[in-house]
Structure formats: C-alpha cells, structure tokens
Amino acid sequence: MSNLTRFDPFPLEPMSELFQGLFRPLRGAPGGDMPLADIKVDVTESDTTYTVKAELPGVEKNDIDVKIDGNLVSISAKVERKQELKEGERVVRRERYSGSVSRSFSLATEINEATAAAEYKDGVLSLTLPKKATSESKRLQIN
After folding, report:
1. Do strands 72-79 and 99-106 pair parallel, antiparallel, or not at all (unpaired)?
2. pLDDT, tens digit, for every residue of 33-68?
3. For domain 31-82+94-130, is the CATH number 2.60.40.790?
C-alpha cells in the first residue's frame, strides 16, 4: 500500500525560527496559529431540540453573534487584542490572534427562533434550539 504525503510549499524545518512566524499565515493550517480559524462544534439532537456546543476561546460574550434562519444556524465572533506598547518597547514576536471568524450549518428541521436560548461560559457557546412543530400533511380529496 502506498502512502500519500501532502506537499507543503513553505516547509518550516529548514528555515530559522526568525522566518517561521513570517510564513505561518500563508500555510493556512486550520487551528495552527489562529485558534479561531475554525469554530469547532458538537451538535446533538433529541426528539424536540438540537443542542449545539461551539468552542470560542478568548472571545468576549458581547462579540459573539448567533443568527437563526429556518434551519440555518450562523455563528460569528470577533477578537480584538489591545496593542499595549510602553515607550522604549518593541514587539519581538506576536502570536495572539486578532480578527473575526464565522461558521454556518444547516439542520434537518427548522428551528423555533422564539424559544431558542444561548449561554456562553468558559469559552464554550451552548445553544438550545427547539425544533418547530411539523405540520401534519393534509391529504386532498380529488373531485
């Protein structure tokens, strides 16, 4: 059996530590240097609700936006890091992430937006999304 290897146009090993930080953003490694590059979610379902848990470490509660449209759920977050430099200081290396990220996914049934709830604690966003009551199909009488 043959092994497949991924081609990396910017291998870090031969480069010195000085250049590693410069080329990492070009590599596009999800979750590598940008912890929010990909929002990781767990979705569970019961007969009446969906429960979504999304990891958003280091995000303030006010910077999270959740939108529900039918069966489409969209989560977006923004992280801003303050640039605090005292006189005479210079940045040697900066690895803390700043920016925004979003994730959208659809569920099998529509969500009742009126009774949906969200809670953010310890870097985890928990959504409780009740399913909309499905209307029973009506059989039409053919005349």
Report:
1. antiparallel
2. 445 557 899 999 999 999 999 999 888 999 999 999
3. yes
